[in-house]
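ok so heres the complex, four chains, lmk if somethin looks off
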Amino acid sequence: MKTGFDGVFGVNSPLFIFSALAAVIVILGFAAPLGGFCTFIERRLAAGFQERIGPNRVGPAGLFQMFSDILKLLLKEDTITKNADRVIFALAPSLVLVGSLGAFATIPFTNNVLGADLDIGIFWAMALGSVVSLGVLLGAWSSDNKWSLLGGMRGAAQIVSFEIPLGIAILSAITVTGTLSMHGIVKGQAWITSGGGFWNIIHNPFLFINFFVYFIASLAECNRVPFDLPEAESELVSGFNTEFSGFRYALYMLGEFCDIILFAGLGTAVFLGGWQLPFVNLAELHVPLAIAGMNVSPLVQTGLMGGVFLAKMASIIFVVMWLRWTLPRLRVDQLMAVCWKYLIPISFFNLLGSALWVWLFKGQSILQLVWAWTGVN
Amino acid sequence: MNLINNLEFYLVFSSILFVLGLLAALTRRNAIGIFMGVELMLNAAGLNFVAFQSFRKNIGGGDWLHGHVFSLFIIILAAIEAAVALAIVLRIFAAKRNIDPYAATELRG
Amino acid sequence: MGTLSALLVAFHPNILYAAVSLIFSLLSVAGMYAALGADFLAAAQLIIYVGAIVVVILFAVMMSEDIYRGRLFDNFKRFLWPAIFSVVILSGVVKLLLQTNWSGIKDNFDRLPTTKAMGLALVGPYAIVFQYVAIVLLLGLIGAVVVARPEFHHGDHEEDQA
Amino acid sequence: MLQEFGNALSFIVLAAILPPAALGIFKFFRPSYPHAGKLMTYECGEIPKGSAYVMFNNRFYLVAIVFLVFDVEVALLFPVMMLFRDAVISGEGATQVFLLSFSFLFVLLLGLIYEWKKGDIDWIRDAEDRRRGLAKDKKWGRTLAS
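and the predicted structre for the whole thing:
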């Protein structure tokens, strides 16, 4: 018999809420600091690229720099300018975080660490990602600053434009995987002897190109160089977050870094095979090891999967940071040309090619074809 | 009381949404405000479709999720409508510096 | 939350606030879709309504300078009759809803994934409609762009301002 | 499925309350000495003139419209494209899915080609500029402030 709280939601509420909270705490408790940690990594990397040292004083090799930064930003004065629209000013960073942190629910870190195993996983992540543009636009508008508004308009136009090639690139991977669920997508990319088609990026040549389309579009989605026009510091002061100071500014930065992690994670799961490795199937791995009578095999397995996933994700993030200190910024007209005249036609073509490939070869990947041809097995 | 498994809950919510949309569309003196009222009404209709689909007993026939597909088409039409309607609004604004629908009456016979 | 934000959409004098509260009422409708088991529709509502239509609305609001012109009580008579009309409709509909004997419906249902079924419907019984949607989208796109395209040769006020 | 959506919702709620919570808690620890100079809108040291809410160029709006239509298209293609692999493997209806989805895509591609030809997706409208007799800088193009 259902009573009280249970009855209202029609489900077993305490368990429901407990499970939801556990998922949130495990993943967000991990992701949000990761976003902060990225700022430190980026500073160290930037210093490396420019032959400086970078922050190395707080903690061993500067590892605790992030905590001191966060504390500093939290203790800074919170300034809201006189003409700003206070309600929307307070709301906008939340919207950005909803778009980036909220979508973390769908990233499959291992085959059991996943916030929400939605049947529409990747579509849900894209849907939440589109909320970011609202946060940018409203934040810019609410600060009543000409630079902000210009940056916000640019940012919104850029973020929404690049959603199209991003979506089509993901769509072309969907033709190969045949499912939208993140677990399903990763499972389909197992090594050939385990019945998968191996990583989608080398599934066929079209997907190989579309991975780079995805990567470029995700750079633009995160406002990263060379697409950092919304916050072009040399022309627009700081773009849409000019008037945001102290912790509010940190929230925007956290949103941006979480966006990078999010898109790196999605790219890893959709194109780079998630936690799948060549030659072994981690999902069926058994470690004959027991500590104090407890079977630690699942733990080792989860750890390995998480490690593989994070390593792939980290390499994407590294390239993103590398590009920041390598490439100059584009102009607005070039930006729009990149999106509408290059990425969208290219991704369209690759979608068509990928669908034809699936049709011709019954959904088999290059490696599977080679495997069958050489006659191993 | 089991709210989310109760058809009336959705229907009452959607009728409230519809009426508020209607009110917005009737009383706003701002074309964009009217447009937002229309969006609310469309949403209410889509919600009704999905609610009835979910609670429908399958009596014969295939299960094609007609209600869901109809809601999807409503969303799509709302998108196209948004593009065209707001383009017209901006055009009127460029001509009149004003988007009060009562101001754009030249074509009245 | 949905009702409150819909109220704000209808009554807030600042049209931008009305647009922001429209976001929340759309989100609550998406939540309702999710609760009804329409998972694809919930995400489509997010991606199309919240991610696209609201962005277009916000652009339009910001470009039209008319933010405070949605004033409600500038003409009380104009407000009174629609209000009475709406209240009558609402009370009638709700009364009707609560009086109806919903014997033809289930009191519980499974929430199964719908995406595949919707895809099958789109290429099955709704295939023609699916193609029509493409044509309508094309025409809408061309129409909207033709209307919104900046015309440089008359009216110089709209160029080079931003 | 409700459980999964519940999880997803709790992610959203937590992300939404994180900023106000952090700001609210540390309100008691951080200084607050506002004065007129601090509260002034930043404009590189100048005294701000007028409101920032100027009318914007229509180009942003054009981009938004084109985006809207293509976004709808991408969203619609997701459930259809998802069927394709299974249709191919089971051998039933692959032709149908392929033809329907790609005729859909092709119709919209026509729209993109139209925009392209008309120059609506060019940020700097060469055709219009030429008609108005504005010379285009050979090397860099004419850069409007935007």
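quick notes: Residues 2-27+34-131 of chain D form a domain with the Methane Monooxygenase Hydroxylase; Chain G, domain 1 fold (CATH 1.20.58.1610). thats all i got rn
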